[in-house]
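Dear Dr. H.,

I hope your travels went smoothly. While you were away I took the liberty of generating a structure for the chain from your last submission, since the lab meeting agenda had it listed for discussion. I wanted you to have the full record in hand beforehand rather than looking at slides cold. The sequence, exactly as received, is reproduced here:
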Amino acid sequence: MSSTIEAALDEYLADQTNTSSEVERGQAAKRTVIKAGSDAVPIIEARLLSGSFEHKRRCFGLLIEMANQISNSIARSLPDKPPLLIIWETAVLIQVGEGFDRAPLFDLLKHPDPYLRHLSALAIAFQGLGQPAEAPRLIPVLIDALRSEAKIEGSQFPVAGGSLACLSKLASSSFLPDGRAIEIYNSTWAFPPPVLPFPLTAIALSGAEREQTILEVDQWWRANQATFRLPRP
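The corresponding predicted structure, in token form, is as follows:
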């Protein structure tokens, strides 16, 4: 059974843009995966952990489409999942309106791996999950992420740029030396659905611009941390 599901997932994730028959094979494979329900979840999860950015995006979409079959079990098992799956699958539950325990995602803000701390902060900020009084848990992690050289889940979108976009929105300030607005592509463009749980922006911070931006964000936070509140979810 698992080999059949894996083969179908491979077929669905393959490039299917050349001929109508390839597109149909891909869609048939997708239907096979969805029909497998909970049996397909571990196989899809493995791709969320190790696949390319495009494969992760499409596997995320699959889980959303399968939500009526799997959302309850995902919510129950969320605390026991690897950190990356906690981030992705919390977003699945949010998109389908399923209740979930916030603790596993918010606990990642203290994870020893900087990438996981930063990615969880991006997911929390971008999806508006923080309660008003939780700014001291979230904002320092977002500020720390401004120094990250990582890209979001194998994409070309920088963690630092996503963090700056979140901070700019929360503070209603650009923080960039030239004051330009930061566009989040998966919020404002016709980006392929579903909306991913991270802010995707082309802003790349480096050198003096990075240091000046971090200085401005630090100054804003020091001046406002006693009274600043996150927007209500």
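Two observations you may find useful: The first helix runs from residue 2 to 13. The mean pLDDT is 92.

With kind regards,
E. W.
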